[in-house]
Amino acid sequence: MKCKRCGQQAEVELPSHNAAFCRDCFFVFFQRQVEKAIKKWQMFKPHEHILVAVSGGKDSLALWDILVKLGYRVSGLFVDLKIEGFSEKAREKVEKFAHQRQGHLIILDLAEEGIAIPWVVKYTRKTPCSICGQIKRYYFNHIAYKNKFQVLATGHNLDDEASRLLANVLRWQMPYLIEQSPILPSVYGFAKKVKPLYRLGEYETAAYAFLRGIDYFAGSCPYSKGATFLRYKQYMNQLELEFPGTKLDFYEGFLKKIVPLFQSSVKKNQDLHLCPECGYPTIAPQCGICQLKHKIKNGKE
Amino acid sequence: MIKIRFFPEGKEIKLQKGGQVRQILKKLHLSPTTALVIKDNQLLTSDLFIKDGEEIEIRLVGSKG
Q: What is the mean pLDDT of the segment spanning A136-152?
């Protein structure tokens, strides 16, 4: 198979784009997809300081790499979940990546915060994946806002977004559908959030990470076994195999045709106030994370 | 015979015969866009052939959470 751009032997085959690329031309393709996403959604300006949430996986490290390559000022944030046999390996990869590239890395230790994931699972009845997501979002936002980063970037890719959209559409989860976008503006105590990899699938981010020599963590979380989001990804992959380009058409179609219809439904955050304990925006008297911390503390005593 | 090593588990299997990457992936119940196929630090497209005696690495690309 030959590279679509230069005719050399291809390394990366992309049926969804009806193309194949050699290593160098794939880097050009990858960079253009990220630049297109940033420009189209006005994600950030050249002088802005970006906080990238990194897990140690291929997507977030690829995102950090490409943003630096594009000349942006970037810091990394790793939230150490304290899951035994998992978090320490992920952390090692992130620290190695930051050290090799002399990147600025912030590490937040959930045990020091009194909310390590194994404690949450033990002392509350919450589903691990959903509560872990909530805790991470809280700290991503809190650190970004507190440290005055202009924007928080996450490594969500096309597979994440298309499978999430499928799950939300199948259950008509309107509040989630309204908020599903590659960009969420900064409002009342929440940092601006962006997803610059939303046009690139997992195959593309994995290929980019491999070809750039990024040593990423590919282990699975012991709590994520049987998680429903993995099933939705499998269903999307089956569709993509039969109809290449389905994921991108599905998600881009949603952004272009459906999201504009939601404009009048977007909540204006009028019910939000700041948590008296930590200062995080919430609609409850106390934010969910402070409530969780108290539950864990009480459970331990 | 070809040797296949899976990343990151390190598990190894052997197939009796070489063949086209697409066919090898099919035998393993994988599609070309769900796994990277690597030989000598290069990614292989699905039309290429793996000869007897060669070794490849397969990396599943899906995040496992």
A: 94
CA A110 – CA A80 distance, rounded (Å): 6
Q: Output the CA–CA distances (angstroms, integers) from residue A277 to A115, A147, A298, in the order listed.
A: 15, 18, 17
Q: Residue A127: its pLDDT value, please?
A: 83
Q: Could you tell me the two tokens for A243?
A: 């109809």
A182: DSSP letter: S
Query: What CATH number does residue B11 fall under?
Result: 3.10.20.30
In a domain, B33, yes or no: yes
B15 — contact with chain A (CB < 8 Å)? no
Phi, psi of A224 (to 5 degrees): -90, 5
Size of interface A-B (CB pairs under 8 A): 75
Interface check A57 vs B, CB under 8 A = yes
Q: What's the pTM value of the predicted model, to 2 decimals?
A: 0.95
- Nearest-CA distance B16 → chain A (Å): 25
Mean of the per-residue pLDDT values of chain A: 94
User: A281, A190 in Cβ contact below 8 A?
Assistant: yes
Structural domain containing residue B23: 2-60
In this prediction, residues A138-142 reach a mean pLDDT of: 95
Q: Are strands A49-53 and A151-153 parallel, antiparallel or unpaired?
A: parallel
Burial class (CB in 10 A: 0-12, 13-18, 19+), A73: middle
